[in-house]
Every structure is written in C-alpha cells, then in structure tokens.
Amino acid sequence: VDLGWGHPHRSLVPTGAWAxxxxxxxxxxxxxxxxxxxxxxxxxxxxxxxxxxxxHADSGRSESAQFFITAGASxxxxxxxxxxxxxxxxxxxxxxxxxxxFSTISDSGCQIAPTPTDDDGPDVEAIADFVQVCxxxxxxxxxxxxxxxxxxxxGRSLPDRRRRQLVGLAQRLDFTIVEDDTYxxxxxxxxxxxxxxxxxxxxxxxxxxxxxxxxAPGLRLGWINAAxxxxxxxxxxxxxDSGGGVNHTNACVMAAFGTSGAYRQHLARIRPSYARQRxxxxxxxxxxxPTVATPRPSGGWFVWIPLPAGCSARAxxxxxxxxxxxxxxxxxxxxxxxxxxxxxxxxxxxxxxQDLVTAAxxxxxxxxxxVG
Amino acid sequence: VDLGWGHPHRSLVPTGAWAxxxxxxxxxxxxxxxxxxxxxxxxxxxxxxxxxxxxHADSGRSESAQFFITAGASxxxxxxxxxxxxxxxxxxxxxxxxxxxFSTISDSGCQIAPTPTDDDGPDVEAIADFVQVCxxxxxxxxxxxxxxxxxxxxGRSLPDRRRRQLVGLAQRLDFTIVEDDTYxxxxxxxxxxxxxxxxxxxxxxxxxxxxxxxxAPGLRLGWINAAxxxxxxxxxxxxxDSGGGVNHTNACVMAAFGTSGAYRQHLARIRPSYARQRxxxxxxxxxxxPTVATPRPSGGWFVWIPLPAGCSARAxxxxxxxxxxxxxxxxxxxxxxxxxxxxxxxxxxxxxxQDLVTAAxxxxxxxxxxVG
Lengths: 372, 372
Hints:
Two copies of one chain form a homodimer.
Chain A: H1 15-25, H2 44-57, E1 67-70, H3 73-84, E2 90-93, H4 100-107, E3 111-114, E4 117-118, E5 121-122, H5 124-136, E6 141-146, H6 160-173, E7 176-180, E8 205-210, E9 222-225, H7 228-235, H8 238-243, H9 248-259, H10 262-288, E10 302-306, H11 313-322, E11 328-329, E12 343-347, H12 353-371
Parallel strand pairs in A: 2-3, 2-6, 6-7, 7-8
Antiparallel strand pairs in A: 1-9, 4-5, 8-9, 10-12, 11-12
Helix pairs in contact in A: 1-9, 2-9, 3-4, 10-12, 11-12
C-alpha cells in the first residue's frame, strides 16, 4: 500500500456524472460553441458559477474580471510566475510545502528560498528582514508560495491572524503571495479559514484553485483569482491567446457540472468518504503508536506524522517497504532538503478504509522494528 | 463577414461523435483511469494510435518514446521553447509565419529574428551566415520556427529539397527546427510533402501537431514529436509532472475517437467541405479580381492574397470593413512588421460557401474602390 500517492479513490471519481455533463453540454444547436475557440480567461458561464459558488465556500465575492481558468493549480502556478516574476527573482516557499512546486518555480528561472517559519507558519518579521537583505544584494523577492489551508503536506491551516499579517506584509513590501487553495473544499470538520485572497482586496495575493481533487485530476482544470490587471496579463500570454483559453471544452462542461448541482452533490458524497479514510488511518496509528502525536487534519488528503526521536524518515523507508507500505519522506517537502527527515507524509485519499488500516499496521510494525 | 478568424465552421465541429467517444471512455469499471492522474508524456493508447496513424499520414514511423501529448500546437511551442532555449537566445521565424507564435516566443524570453527568405522559403545559405554572425556576437541561435506544410498564412508548402537542406543545416549548426505541422491532414488536392521531422532521424527537429483544426480547438489537444531525450525533459517540467500530463482525460477520449475510426470518418467529412469553402472564395475572387493572382492552396485554411500594386493592406482595411468584410493584414505575419503590407490573409474555414462568395464580392468591391 503506497501512501505516497495523493490521488483520489477510484470510487470517488465521478465518471458517470461527468459523462452526463458532457452529454448535456454537447447537445443542441449551440453545442459547437463549447468545442471551438473560447476566450483567453475562460468561459463566462464557468466564471459566473465559480464566483457565486466561492462566495459561499469562502469569505467575500470576487469579480468576474478577477478570474482566469487554468489547467490545474500547478499550471496556475506556472502561469502566475510567468507574469509576476523575471528570471533571477527570488520566490519564497513555505517550509514544508508542496514539493512539486519547487520544480515549477525552478523552471521559471527563479531562485527558491525557504521561508523562515515559527510554530504558526511563515514568520512575518523574519520574512521582512529577508526581503530587505535581498534588496541590499540587488535581488528581488517576487513571490511567496504556500498552501495555507489543509496544506500539503501538513494538513494544517494557517491561523487567521497570520493570514492577515502576511497579506499586509506582501502589500507593504511589494511581493505577491501565491496562495494554493487546492484543498479548501475538502473539509471534514469545523469551519474553513477565509482565504488570504479574501483579505487582500485584490492586492498582493494571487489565489490558485483546482478541480483536480474535488472533481478529477485528469480534467486539468483549475482557476486563478487575481487582480484584473494580472488576469489581463495572463490573457495576453502567447499560447493562452492563441489557444482561446487553456481548456475551453472541459471548462464549459464544468460550468454545466456546477450549475446543475452535480458538483455540490459530488462534494457531499466525497467529504464523508475521505473523512472515514482519514479516520481509519489516524485511529489505527494512534492505537498502534501511542507515543507518536498523530494529527487528525480537518481537511485535505494528508497526515503529517512526526517520527519518534532518532527515527529517520529516509532510513525507515526501506524497512517500511519491506513491511508492505510506502510514503513520502518529509525532507522532500523542504526546498533545501535539509530538514523534514523527522516527518513522513501519508496520503489517505487513494485507498479504502480497510487498506488504510492494513497500511497503518504495517507502518507501526516498521516503526517498532526501527526504533527497537 | 470576418475572414480574419481561423476557426472551424460550426457544422464541422464533431459534437455528437465526440460525446459518443466520451461516453465510451467513461463507461465501465476502468473508466476512473481516464479521469485520474495520467503519465507526464500522455496516455499510451493515444500515443500508439497516433504513431500508427501518422505512419500513413506522413513518411516513416516515430517511436512511442518520441511523442509527448500537449494542449495544442501553441502550447507545444511554449513547451518546446522551455526545454530548448534559454532567455536571450535567438529564435528565427519564417517570414511570413503564424503571428501568434511571436508572443509565445517573446514570453519565453528569447529574441525573435525573421529568417532571410527566397522564393522557396527560408534561405539556407543566408541562415547559415546569420547563425555565424550571431555566434561571433556571443548570441546563440537556438531554434527556427516555421509552418512548412499548408502554412499559416500563405497556404503554401516548402519544397522537398528545401526541407532536406534545412534539416541538414540545423543538424550541422546545432539549432532545432520547430516544425508546426498543424495543417498536414487538411489536404484537399494532391500529395502532402513528407515532414521535416521525417527527414531528421530525430535530430535537429521538433514537430508540433494539433487536433485543434482536425477535431476541435476547444479540446486543447495536440502532440510533439521529438527525440526521446527531449521528451524526457518535457516530462520533467514541474507542472507537467505535477499534473500527470497536460490533458489526460481529453487525451484518453481522443484515443477512443481515433481507434474507433471516428477520426478518419470526421476527416473524410471535413476535407471536401473545406475544399468547397476554399473554392467558393478563390473562384469568386478570381472572377472579380482577374489581375490579382489569387492562389488556390492545396490544404490548410488560408488564402494569401497579393494586393494590386499601390494597395496597402492596412489602408484597405477600413474600406473593406465599410463594405462588410474583414481580414488580417499581411504585416501581422512578419515579426518585424515592416513587410507584408502588400498581402492579406483570408481564412475560409469559418463560413459557409454562400457567405464566402458574399465576402469575396465585398472584398473585390473594396479593392476596386481603393484602387479606383
């Protein structure tokens, strides 16, 4: 059982409901409009539904001109970097954070620097100092990337006060927070913090959304919230303009999937399933490894496990795999690779409850064997 | 009637056949596989069908490892530039050529230089000289972009001999020809020249293909032929890796659309329609403007009209629009914007024959009014 994969459980991929939405979209005399060139920023029906939907799923309401439809959150990150940064700029990344963001940032020609952090997340004062030091060296800090809500890999959310402080800092020091908000709607218990975007008045924050986790990864469909001026710059990118948007047909189908209520029904179906998967994993680990402080994240797909003292995530991996379970070692989520070997990331999204119980038992066996 | 739009005629967008392919793909116990994460280079069934199909539509057969599925030809250009060039490199572009390629190249941080040309297209000796001059200046010529087959905007194809010469030059001087092969399958009369890619043995050429014109633009689906090593570098791009390919679900549906025979049937339906549209436009113009050498392209979507002496494409446009017809002026297709004002590009793809006859008559009226 490979708990490294952040993929959806097969039974939670809405093949039938999506096929219905395709059939509805590609039916009738205007169906051709969904298959020809679209607008660079995406089809209006999807943007209008999204603006309305997010006014419930988050605080506040974004203007239509503040939306850009992407081919997923990682593509959104690549697009945002294309218009917000120049080669050689510094991009701060949360520590730990989503590891595949690092290569996307490197591809843009920017330098990656891990943020200083404290127990609550990125450390505002230390970031301010770092930005000033960079300036004195002639380097520009262009952006800060983080996954502040049910984050990958930690499952944790940034406290509300820290959100406001970071937004204020970005506005004051003229860098852009790239808020990866992929997991907002995968909430299982309690309220979801308002986004950094919602605190920003459209200044200093670009938010990345995705339908990869809430609908299906293969669709390559997501969205950006950004100031209208940033959206205009995205629209003028050569291949966006040439292609008539980056994923027009799927975006039109998503509009139907959203407005028909299928999206809401789908969310209502997957949330309790993922919560049960989380609980199967967490409950078993808590019983089997009582000295390990296994967290129970309120949302997202991941559990971030602190290993017992002296237990290395990298060193444990072969033992775990001999026991029939795998994971991603924590150092992968640190841009410098120097920290995080005291944690492992487990994804509970891909497997059924019984498999997760099995995996948790195998992992506990491996930890016991390693710690001795 | 706006002959500026290179869009498909609404009746030639296969909404029903595509919906059928979606239904077939998203049916059955393995349907979830088409909606979860895919492989970075694209789904094997599509690549296998494509390799087989192209072995008939072109000369030779590419290996599976030489394919990468893209979100359209312009996206393919952006991807190719990302792995083949560095900011500051020089990218040569054919003159004239597809105008939206210019912004995609600029977005990559490269400098654009129009190729020296003769009557047959890019001038091999002059390019060789230019590359050497750049080298002496410390500048690297990384790539040459062109649309050699039923090209946009000219509708013309590069002679076979020139294809071989250019491939030899690229291999000798270590730059990459980016061959935009979007129009190969939209052939109406006679044979189609073998691609530059097929002459290259996988060295010095990257070919961009697209299903935008042959199936539908909104799908954002195309492909790259490149050396296996280039494909590997594309696979490692951050957002490609993170997303599990750039358009997995549509790529899986395209595999079904191809293997079922729907693609071949669709091509057989659209070719004679586009040929009739071409003929309606060309025949009317030849009758109405007998002194203008209106070409009849053997394929593609465009007619490149040489205006009568003294008639400026830019100056004619307001007059044409007063007469109820529009076009793209020829200077748009030259990177330097200095040439081409003696030509206009007309797209015959979007309109029915009768509308094209009307448009041609309006254009002739405008030319007559302008020339006096």
